[in-house]
Amino acid sequence: MKRDKCMGLDVHQATTVVSVIDAEGKIVWETIVVTETGAIRRLIESISGPIHVTFEETTQAAEWLDDLLQGLVAEVVVCDPRRNKLLVEGSKGDKADARKLADLLRTGMVGSVWHARQTTRGLKELVRAYETFVVDTSRTMLRIKALYRSRGIATKGSAVYQKRERDHWLKQLTEVGMQQRAAWLYEQLDQVRELRKRAKAAVLNEGKRHKAVQLLRTIPQVGPIRAAQIVASAGTPHRFRTKRQFWSYSGLAVVTHTSAEYEMRDGRVVRRNKPVATRGLNTNCNRRLKSVFISAATSGGASWQPYLNHLQEKGMKADMARLTLARKIAALALAIWKKGESLDPKKLNWTK
């Protein structure tokens, strides 16, 4: 695609640095505007001709700026800052970053980050809130145990968190300040648990409105929360042409490494007969989806046990069998989501 005018935006909380270059890579305009809807709209409207805009996905620019620019410019590319390796070369600064972003867009070297549609954005926010409270709950519980361990008090099991046992545990803390700190942590734990409970109920209610969530729930070990997480993360199955693309996005693709693959033999180029070394799973992925599929495969459901037994009978190690099961669950999720049909357990083939 030929882009006559490419605009790079280096977005910050207070200001946005703008750099516009032409098709030859020459800078035609640079400016700084306030990071506000009105200021950015006036900026775009002041430039004639079709404009192609790119900016990195940040807290300020994730969805608000994308929604604002849609319809105002010819193209909007929200790019992944982790993939913009060229930005670390040369000078580092706001203007330099904006110029490099514009030049990367001109040369077609930026990859866009997919953003959820309006239909799934509400579910995405609720799932994100629920996961935040889950993490906060675990973090508070760890802080409580760490506090007791710092005084040499063993805290095995979950009794230390129970309300009816708290007086017993607090009395073991002889220092007033330490005892007060523990009491505050218990209060925080109660509040976060209540918020987590309410967030989970909200996710379940919102999930009922989405047909895809109901379809994915027909997969063994994929409950309402996991189904909602899959829909909130992927948004639509049509982003992925094949299951291998979905595996890569979900962090289930095996990374291989090889070198010196060819050699000269009798005057001909032939491929070496050497094994390909594996380097684990790909790390550039959606961590939520990876957790969902791995946890579904390792939760020990009876429905998948025949498949695991079949893999192990073929000589596959237990950990590789679990990974293969996670990939199968991901492939099933993508297939039934695309077809819009519930999973028929009778069609499950344990030999494939």
User: How are the strands ordered across the major sheet?
Assistant: 3-2-1-4-5
Looking at the structure, what is the overall shape?
A: globular
How many separate domains make up the residues? 3
Main pleated-sheet profile: 5 strands, mixed
Give the CA-CA distance, first to last residue.
42 Å
Strand content: 5-15%
Structure in words:
By secondary structure, the chain is an alpha/beta fold. It has three domains: 5-106, Nucleotidyltransferase, domain 5; 118-207; 211-347, no CATH class. Helix content is 47%, strand content 14%. It has twelve helices and nine strands. It has helices at residues 37-45, 64-69, 94-106, 118-149, 166-170, 176-207, 211-216, 224-234, 243-249, 287-298, 305-313, 318-339; strands at 5-11, 15-22, 27-34, 52-56, 75-79, 254-257, 262-265, 268-271, 277-281. A five-stranded mixed beta sheet has the order 3-2-1-4-5. Strand 2 (15-22) and strand 3 (27-34) form a beta hairpin. Helix 4 (118-149) runs antiparallel to helix 6. The longest helix has 32 residues, at 118-149. The radius of gyration is 26 Å and the shape is globular. The mean pLDDT is 89.
Provide the fold topology:
Blueprint lengths: L4 E7 L3 E8 L4 E8 L2 H9 L6 E5 L7 H6 L5 E5 L14 H13 L11 H32 L16 H5 L5 H32 L3 H6 L7 H11 L8 H7 L4 E4 L4 E4 L2 E4 L5 E5 L5 H12 L6 H9 L4 H22 L13
Notable features of this structure?
single chain; 352 residues; alpha/beta; Nucleotidyltransferase, domain 5; two-stranded antiparallel sheet; 12 helices
